[in-house]
Each structure stands twice: as C-alpha cells, then as structure tokens.
Design brief:
The structure holds two protein chains of two kinds. By secondary structure, chain A is mostly helical. Chain A is built from eleven helices and three strands, in the order H-H-H-H-E-E-H-H-H-H-E-H-H-H. In chain A, helix 6 packs parallel to helix 8 and helix 9 packs antiparallel against helix 11. Chain B contains five helices and no strands. Classes of the chains: A mainly alpha, B mainly alpha. The interface between A and B is large, with 74 and 70 residues.
Chain lengths: 293, 141
Amino acid sequence: MGSTAIPTGTKWWSGGKSPFNVSYGKVMMWYFLMSDAFTFGAFLISYGTIRFSVNNWADPNHVFNSFPFAGHANLPLAFVSLMTFILIFSSVTMVLAVHEGHQMNKKGVEKYMILTIIGGAAFLGCQAWEWTHLLTGEHVAMLNDGTLSVLPTTVKMNPWGAALSHKEMVDALQKTSHEQLVAIANTLHHGAESAHHAAVSLTNQELINQIASSEIHATHTGPIAFGGYFFGITGFHGFHVFSGVIINIIMYLKTKLGHFEQRGHYEMIEKAGLYWHFVDLVWVFVFLCFYLV
Amino acid sequence: MSAQHYENPEITFHPDHSGGTKKIWKIFWVLSALTIIELALGYFLYAKHGQLGAAAVLSTKIVIGILTLAKAYYIVSVFMHLGDEIRNLIMTIVVPLVLFVWFIIAFLADGESWKNLRNTRGKSRTYQTEEVSKEAVESHK
C-alpha cells in the first residue's frame, strides 16, 4: 500500500471520484491485461492438456540446446536464459522510466525508454534466430512408412520423438531412398558442397555403411502438436513484444516532443509500462511451460 | 523538477513517489536470483534425466512452478505497482484469476484421462504405451 494515508470512512462510491483511485485509462488497461492473461492462459492450458495426453512429448533440453555461433555444442537452457534476462532487464529499465516520469524528469524518461526499446528489439532478434534455427534445422527421423528422412521443426512435422536404437536405424536405412540417404550423409558434413558431390556418386550400400558407422542420432518423429503450440504461443507472445516495442517508440517520441511535460504528468508512460511488464510476465510462464519443465 | 501533478479530478489520493530506485533494483536482484534457481533446477532435471523417480521429477517441477508464481507476484506487485493501488482495484484484478486454479486442474486431468483411454484402447486392454506395444509386436514376429 502507498504511504499516503487514506482516511477511514472515505465514501468511494458516492460519485465524483474514481472508486479505484485511478484514471479511467489505467483501469481499462488493467482489464485489458486481465483478459489477455486469460487468452494466454487458455493457450498454455490447452498446450498442457495435449502434452499430458501424449506418451512421448518433445524433451525441451533436446530441442532447445543451441546457441548462436556455438556450432553444434550441446547447451541446454543457455539461449533461453539469455532471452529471459534480456526481458527482465528491459522490465527494470521500463519501471525506471516510470519512476523518472513521476519526478517529471524528461531526460531520464527518454534515456530509460531508449534502453527499454533496445531490450525489446534484442529479445525479438533472439526469437528470430531461434525460430530460424528450428525451421531450417536438419535432424534425422524415421517417418511412418519406416524410412529415414531429414526433418526441420515446423507446425506439420518435427524430429523430436524417442531415440531409435542402432538396429532400428540400420533397418530403416535399408528401406530409405538414394535421395534421402544422400541428404542424411550431407548432414554428417554440415552441407559442404564437395561432400555432397562425393555422396551422390556413392551406392546405397556405401551410404548406409557411412551413415551407420557415424555418430548420427536418429529419432522417431515427434508429436505433431509440438510445432503448432510452440510457434503459436511464442509467436503470439513475440507479437505482443513487437507491438510493445512500437508503443514504446511512440511513447519515446511523445516524450521527446514534450507532450507529457505540457500535460503535466507522465501517466501514458505508466500505461505503456503496464503493457510492457505484462509481456515480461507472460514470458515467465512461457519460459516455464516450454523450456523448463 | 517538481513532482508531477495530476489534474485528474477522479483521483482522490496520490501515492507517494518521492522514494528512490532502491526497491526497483532490489526486485531486479530477487527476480534474477529466482530465475537462476529455476535454471539450476531445470539443469538438475536435465543432468539427472532417467535417473530420478517420477515423484522426484514431479516435485522438482512443482518447485519450479512455485518459483515462477513468486516471480509473477513481484512483477505485478512492484513493477506494475498493483501493490500500491487500493484494495478494491487489486481485488477486481486478482479474484477473477482464481478461475485458473480450476482450469489447470480440470484440463490437465482431462489430458491425463485422454492418455489413459488411448493407452488402454478405451479400457479394452491393459495399460501400455505405444512404444511398449511396438516392441511387443516386434517380439511377436
């Protein structure tokens, strides 16, 4: 509770004042955020329901183990921690901007709004990298017809099922077409052009021997719903981040132009701040549901 | 640099904003610490994958969930200043969210029941997961 003492017996509901002691705009922002919380909650609970109903859900430590410029190093939780700290930090700069607004310090508001916008943009950049990495990833998985194929993670398919035993993989290789065997052999050399030419001229059995003797891990295809939920929910959150960055840019420009100083208060910064913190709040739960557990 | 003055006649009492930024930074460190503990527990689950019993995994996940709720509390209460608002406003925001308790219980139980029905073919066979049934088919050949 604020340090302002509110006299007992104040008649909040007798008209002429806000019974909640806040402006109309702020109350409506709170109610919008509450409804948005239900939207996100419904998405996440629906995801949980489907995840609970499937025997082998994708293991997040297996799916999200990459880091930019780290090649094929196995780094579970690392990149998403970076994204989480970026968002927490941009939340701090936002609340500092609100604080400077309370002090009517125009320069301070400008500085912290810029930092918040940079934080939001950095988060979006991270998400763009992560999506690209999943959508263009190449992992060997066994399709329903018993042949092996190189799969990315999309809303229609993903390679995040249970691991195949070596024997299962060798059996599946025998049924796999020449074209797919070449594609699998290419993943061993990370798509090097010369290796591709060499692989095309090999016979099926030579390719099979090469693949079977390699360190390659093949899996079953994963639950199809995984991609839809992951891209749907992180996309919906990412769109909130994007619109939050746009709102913050507008707030920065209005601060710079002196609109709030003329108005005598920085309440618009507080309302934009509520939205921005909500975006951080949702990420806390997305982080929990998709990456941690 | 005088403190701001609302012209808004709806607002009866102004919260005191003259305090410094100490509390904001304190909450930043609290949120960071909670996140690091969550990550440590998440990494523990990864490192011990396959070695822990179902109950240990579930209770670790529940602890992570509780830490997440603590983070949510600090963000809403301090960063969004809901803790500084009057009780009526806090209650209209928080009370409806109690519905989530029921949503989560009902829908996750639904998912669990769906899995049981699938693995027992609608209670017409003993419980087995698809992987088990595949192996059973293999050995049958």
